[in-house]
Amino acid sequence: MSANSSYAAAGVDTAAGDLAVELMKAQVAATHGPQVLGGVGGFAGLFDLSFAKDYARPLLATSTDGVGTKIAIAQALDKHDTIGQDLVGMVVDDIVVVGAKPLFMTDYIACGKVVPERIATIVTGIARACADTGTALVGGETAEHPGLMGADDYDVAGAAVGIVEADRALGAEKVRDGDAVIAISSSGLHSNGFSLVRAILRDAGIGYGDHAAELGASWGEALLEPTRLYSGQLVELLEGEHGPAVHALSHVTGGGLAANLARVLPKGSYAELDRATWSPAPVFRVLNELAGTTLESTEGTWNLGVGFFAVVAEQAADAIVAELDRLGLPSWRLGTVAHGTPPGDGWEQGAKGVDGGAVRLVGGYAS
Questions:
Q1: Phi-psi region of 266 (alpha: psi -120 to 50; beta: other; left: phi over 0)
Q2: Nearest to 129 by CA among 161, 88, 190
Q3: What is the value of pTM for the model shown?
Q4: Arithmetic mean of pLDDT over the chain
Q5: Burial class of residue 351 (count of CB atoms within 10 Å of its CB; 0-12, 13-18, 19+)
């Protein structure tokens, strides 16, 4: 028995892995610009960084993430063409938070059994989203884990690298008293809080194939709405006329609204966010109705319609809202940053190890 056939007998099909690479090769190569050296399938990706010599002090930014239990819905529906965009959104859009332009990304897929067409569909989604954000997909890995994962189970993760000039990096140190807080719309749930989503549907006896009249689709289709991508448009904003007026950005992912904004505000500052400035999308309302909970109670789990925050100079706020709208990112003014001791209670102070500012949401949501 050959080594390959012995491996196949153990449940690992290297030929299927090779076929998956062939099926995805063209889509991956389409993300490569002149900075990418070599082709698909090498042990490591190479990216020409010689352009960085034009920077006075180039800083590399990096991030890594996955998609979480949203994958369980894709697996249940056998629909895998949107998960790749979710991954890029979770990874690449963290890069732009510090003001960096994304350069390249790698992905990792672990599965119980390599089904070439499925793997190629996932990676094609990753490649398409990388192209949309100006990111090269320079490498990846697919690992078959028979006995550890079921034949139809898989998980995805990725990592990305970006670059920013040191004096253009964004962060709490640039935030000033009186800065405006701008909200940028999400496309829905994105990729956070799906353990709660799945529990709500399970307890309500709802299947992913069941029709959700309020959402105009099946539950599975509505929940798999892909994560909105922000990096391309935000890089354009930062490189444009109003870029210097942007002081901080925050990606609303795990931890919800107040916590993610608090992370990018300086200690000793606070911001009240006015719920009346927006109306959360139907998917958030219907899920809360099913669970018998309020929108306010899920502000620490779901984005409720806000995918990003931008903290900007007050005098440029209206122009930046208009520019974001022009770039295809609907946005609105949400609050103002102040320095001092926050009044009253109900504040979220910093988050995820960051000793940042204080944030609370006030009022009721628009109907």
A1: beta
A2: 88
A3: 0.91
A4: 91
A5: buried
Q: What is d(CA 66, CA 6) in angstroms, rounded to the nearest whole number?
A: 32
Neighbours of 3 (CB within 10 A): 8
* Closest alpha carbon to 90 in 247, 226, 265: 226
At residue 1 the predicted structure's pLDDT band, cuts being 50, 70 and 90, is very low
58-99 pLDDT, tens digit each: 999 999 999 999 999 999 999 999 999 999 999 999 999 999
Distance, in Å, from the CA atom of 148 to the CA atom of 157, rounded to the nearest integer, reads 17
pLDDT tens figures, 324-347: 999 999 999 999 999 999 998 999
Contacts of 318 (CB under 8 A, 6+ apart): 333
| 38: its two tokens | 């070599």
How many angstroms separate the CA atoms of 73 and 207, rounded? 10
Question: Who contacts 266 (Cβ-Cβ below 8 Å, separation ≥6)?
Answer: 172, 173, 175, 339, 356, 357
